[in-house]
Please model this.
Amino acid sequence: MNHPLLAAGGAQLLLGNEAIVRGALEAGVNFVTCYPGTPSSEVPDTFRRLAPSGRFSLEYAVNEKVALETAAGAALAGALCLVTMKHVGVNVAADPLLTMTYTGLPGGLVLMSADDPGCHSSQNEQDNRAYARFAGLPCFEPATAQECKDMTRAACLLARETRQPVMLRTTTRVSHLRGPVRFGPLPEPAAIVPFERNPRRFVPVPAVARVRHRALVEALEAVRSEAERSPFNKTGGSGEIGVVASGVSRAYLHDVLLEKGWENAVRVFDLGMSWPLPEKALEIFMRQVKTLLVLEEGEALVEQALNAMAHKLSLPVTIHGKQGPLSVFGEYSTLLIHDALAPLLDKNEPIACGPGCMELPQRPPNLCPGCAHRSVFYATRKLFGDDAYYSSDIGCYTLGLLPPLATADFLFCMGSSISAGSGFARASHKLTVAFIGDSTFFHSGITGLVNAVFNKHNILVVILDNGTTAMTGHQPNPGVDQEVLGDACAQLDIEAVVKGCGVSRVAKARGYNQKAVQELLLSMKDETGVRVLIVEEPCVLYARRTLKKARSQKAYVAAQDESVRVCLETLACPAFRCRSDGDGGVSVDPELCAGCMVCMQLSPSFKAGKGGEQ
Amino acid sequence: MSKRLRIYLTGVGGQGTLTATTLLSRTAMEQGLDVVSGEIHGMAQRGGVVESTVLIGGWHSPAIQQGEADILLGFEALETLRGLHYLAQGGFVLSSTDFVPPPGVNMGRECLPAIDDIKAGVSKVADKAWFLPLQEMGRQAGAVQSGNTALLGALCASGLLPFGPQALREGVRRFLPSKVLEVNLRALELGVGAIR
Model:
């Protein structure tokens, strides 16, 4: 197959996540698994486009634990594996992770964790470098597109050489930057390492686990000497002020020094391979400086380690880190790093600053015109209002929290809607509605549903089945149409799964059918036990792009009356336009109207047309 | 040319600003320039703001902070104003005059600023600014979306970049799909013509 990422050499402008794909291919990756999640998703999605090359196998797993376990099994069988997920996914995968570092994996495995400082698209900003330390994983942290490629390759080769799992940690800025990448040679896929049966290593009963824990610590010490001479850990500059920088902060530091002409005023330690710490090299560096600034987004992990080293070795160095402008919150930036560095250099020239932010109309993310979630949330709020409590989950439908729909009262993580909702209902004795999407249901909703049946909880579960993994860009999941999945995957029927979990009260409705949705919600409201309403309607973007099913009709307002006004205020479809001429008239933007015709069911003044009627 | 430039681009999800960002970055790379580009688009598909960056001439960071941008490219007029604090005093602005009304405006709860107020706000920070009717230019070229390429054409003709419109013409030919090629080349020329 012919694809730019499979070129023999040359340089290309690549997304950080695309460069990771190239790096894995240059190492000869055999097997890739993932669960999609921003900002990691472009890695598997790029592999998916390259799948016809036949160089590797790719699986979209149902969740991160399964993705890691499947890849670990393949790595035991000798395949070189890459597993990708967003930072919170590693929590799901933590159980197998903290034991596979004991057993080791002969084929080699790299875990890509895409962190999200600043919560651009996540529910927390946890720092997964902590997992490298916790589980015992060597860790690489790229800061440029070139490093995304080079470090992925190096991580894969290290994993294969040491037979131990390795972490590749990116952040949103790094995964989503674009930069030039010089390609290296593209070899054939790695050879499969034959499995040598050895239960005294690979079956961690207590007697084995105790021995393997020592083996892990020894393996990490061996990797530490690799870190001491790693080309990704390098020093430069001069002077008595030192900076140890890791992750994308290295890029910010570079730009501050370049812009201010401070390149020779500070000594820099670029910490690219950030675990295990190259302690000898860091000690030499610390002996060369009087003052040290540590740059790391997230937790003060390097700072604490350097403080401990300085104390133990009685080094005469003052260490600055998470203080002043630098904190554990959000992202670092050129401005913050400038402000932290300038006083250490006795420079107090203020950096140029633009005008302040203005109060302008906001653009909050919103459910699309024609999204069936809006229809279901409308019906639920109309019927239950504030008498019910709404347990939300992770997906587009989290946006149901926005008024006027206001159908999200609490949320923790993928799959928490059913289990947290069960507990909430038990303690509060209130009507509790759990909303969960199809991909999230398969991810970790099923276990909560089994528990709800087993423990006889009272919960109304609404499965919002839009037939795809919408939020992250329409990746396959077990609920996707067989025709779209192709030969490599098998579709599962959500209703059969729900019934198989022991739920006896199950009903189905089309998302655009207000009458059906409302009738079923009403009848389930006063029932007890676990009730599941499966609402089916394809994601409107997916229907248009993948299923090629666009609706040709458009809604228009035939008569301005109170019912139209109520519809504007309660359904709040983004295609509605409140006329600016002050008469309070409402129209429907035919460019945006997706033709779902939910408004027509709520007010007789909306009519269906071909667009353009007013 | 060793000139270092930070370009901040802003628009609304679905407008194609990321496609324009990548086209500009690739064109710069084809000219042998060091380039890094960044994008923030968490939930942009759903009508949010899409911010992106192109940094030319040796920067490593893909991000631009307040007051750091040499050039601001606004693909939507309200977002030009919102993004103005990224512009350095004395920088340059190229912006659309068209609005994509946000939900609060559609619901009748909020009002859009007048385009003249946006121009006045911009003139307090920018040394020079160009405002172009991108939707109309796009329609004239054959597709509304190609208005983005008109803005890039204007940028290349402004003399602010280390390369001119010819580099962009080559970039369009090389990096855009053949079925939209003619439309985008026409839009490019409209942009070039608009600021001369």
Notes: DSSP finds 22 helices and 23 strands in chain A. Residues 4-228 of chain A form a domain with the Rossmann fold fold (CATH 3.40.50.970). Chain A touches chain B through 57 residues (CB under 8 Å).
